[in-house]
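Hey,
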Amino acid sequence: MTLRTALCLSFAGILAAQVPFREFPGVEYELGTIPLPPDAFEKTEFAFARLMYPQGPGGRGFGGGFRGWSAWQTGNSIWTQDYPRADRHFVQAVRRLTRIHVRSVEQPINLDEAGQYDWPWLYAVQAGRMQLTDSQAKGLREYLLRGGFFMADDFWGEYDWATFMESMHKVFPDREPVELSNSDVIFHTVYDLNDRYQVASRGSSLRGVSYKCQNCPDHWRGIFDDRGRLMVAITFQSDVGDSWEWADEPTYPQEYAALGIRIGVNYIIYAMTH
């Protein structure tokens, strides 16, 4: 049985065995601030899965939560940045722009729990604050080698990159990220995205810049498996999550929202077809 065949069989069971939806309080949005859509509990073929992770120093929620103390397993931690507004805005765009039957609400995934193999897509925000344990790294490695896809987003500067790579070296000690080229398939699954540019956060755009730190150009990086499938897509020094979160905000520039949504759609289609 090939990896792709095994992956298809695994994902075919999503409708029957999907882990129940759950919500957590976030560092930006209190629990219940973003209302549940009326079809939140519909069984679908795809759901946006967001990685829950232990965080290192820096960022909201370290030590004491943004709205009071909280362990990362219960929300109010940096993995909830933009959550759940970004997730729910983005899946509405995926519904409109593709024929994928997408759930209207996200799914937080804890690698210490069972069920991570039910989700073909996994997203992490502020990945430069992620500090995976050895067992979590092993779980992520298994997930990726079985055909899963991981998008790491919104982290900036050398410190964030070094912290991110500490976790990724636990996941893949023998695989290094590479710069993706315009010819890579992931940039052409739905939209041709040869002319990419740095996706600004809302805060940066309000200041009239696209970056969160000086001399921080955008990088589009990835980690491939032995067959040339992209397993990890890294949007380093861009804030794609903010482009989803604020896509309907008149003060957020259209060019960032448009590119961020197209990037996400391409990545999801790639994850579902490779």
